[in-house]
Amino acid sequence: MEINVLKEQMTALYKETMTYKFDKETYVSEIAKVKKKYHDLLNDIAEVCESSEEIPGELITCIPDYVSEELRAAGSKRRKELAALDHKLNMVSFFMPLIGEAPSDKAKELTRQMADAWNRKMPGNKIGHSTYESINGGFRRGLSCYISTAVYRSLDKPDDCYELTTLRKYRDTYLMESEEGRKIVEEYYNIAPTIVNRIGRREDADEIYHGIWDSYLEPCIRLIETDRKEECRDLYITMVRTLEKEFLYS
């Protein structure tokens, strides 16, 4: 298949996934449905990836180039910010995981290079690499600590900062070790992407994130540091309940 035709079909698929709702309850069935619908395209992508030692650069950059142009034409700064949020969520939640399911050992390498190309093209709207497995597995890898990550980015802290590393370790070595803790984490990852999406659409998003830091995340870290893990769990639950009430049901 000609690369230009493949690029057009990948862009059409990307546009379609932009209309999908990110919902844990329907995620698996949605991906399965789209994989079936675009079976031939995924096979064509796999064939092109396998046909040469290096993945064609045009496949790697076609979606970052498309999104970059869309954001450039979005209008005001606020419109660009809202559009960027939608594109980032789509790329990480649907498009990269779907392309990574193409029947080739190189498929996930293609999506890794897509993420790198995206970040070079749009350094102010960086994304991380994600896979279907990481999202379907409770959002514990590519989308880990979703709200916390959004908060720390608003504070100009990197994804591997001390605070995020501490919270992730607490999640994996304490919360995930009990049935109750696993249920808390599962609930959190069910609602967190929607909460971040809705906060991101607010004019006072940075102020909200700073409030989450002051009221919940910084106190949680202090509790972890002093080995008061149960108190941290209770505060964690309070944060989830409060954000759920304010941004899902208000």
Describe the structure.
The protein is an all-alpha fold. The protein folds into two domains: 3-136, no CATH class; 146-247, no CATH class. Helix content is 73%, strand content 0%. The protein has twelve helices and no strands. Helix 1 crosses helix 4 (57-72) and helix 11 (205-225) packs antiparallel against helix 12 (229-247). It is globular, with a radius of gyration of 19 Å. The N and C termini lie far apart (50 Å).
Mean pLDDT: 85
What's the β-strand tally?
Answer: 0
> Poorly predicted ranges (pLDDT <50, ≥5 residues)?
138-144
Reading the helices and strands in chain order gives: HHHHHHHHHHHH
Shape: globular
The CA-CA distance between the termini, in Å, is: 50 Å
Provide a count of the helices: 12
Helix content: over 70%
The biggest beta sheet, please?
none
What gyration radius follows from the Cα positions, in whole Å? 19 Å
> Total domains, how many?
2
What share of the residues does DSSP label as strand, in percent? Answer: under 5%
Category from helices, strands and their pairing: mainly alpha
